[in-house]
Amino acid sequence: xxxxxxxxxxxxxxxxxxxxxxxxxxxxxxxxxxxxxxxxxxxxxxxxxxxxxxxxxxxxxxxxxxxxxxxxxxxxxxxxxxxxxxxxxxxxxxxxxxxxxxxxxxxxxxxxxxxxxxxxxxxxxxxxxxxxxxxxxxxxxxxxxxxxxxxxxxxxx
Length: 157
Fold this sequence. Notes:
This protein is an alpha+beta fold. It is about 20% helix and about 45% strand. Strands 1, 2, 3, 4, 5, 6, 7 and 8 form an 8-stranded antiparallel β-sheet that branches. The mean pLDDT is about 90.
């Protein structure tokens, strides 16, 4: 990372950024060019290991690519704010972001509902009942995060 002064390596601080984000973009191997999609996600931490949960239909390009190569790069960002330096007539953007790598696995039928509950908790603080009929026609995936780093720019100077 070029700007080491903005780098965040503390696990807990990175997790706090992830909790603020509402979209995770994952890039998959698709030959000549990566294939990237924005996804809703849920975060779970077990014994110091972070996992991200995603859902999808039962078929599609994303699933085909992940079945061929389950290695992904992910990115999420939040806290965007315009920073204006009137005295020097310039501007920049404030932000927080996380970039990392992981491997994705497809959850078996008996674990899909738990994965969806983790995903739903990211967007709704309390557990709530939701229709479980669509679960059988939903793919639920879990990414094991292999490495990640955070970055922040929120200072004004």
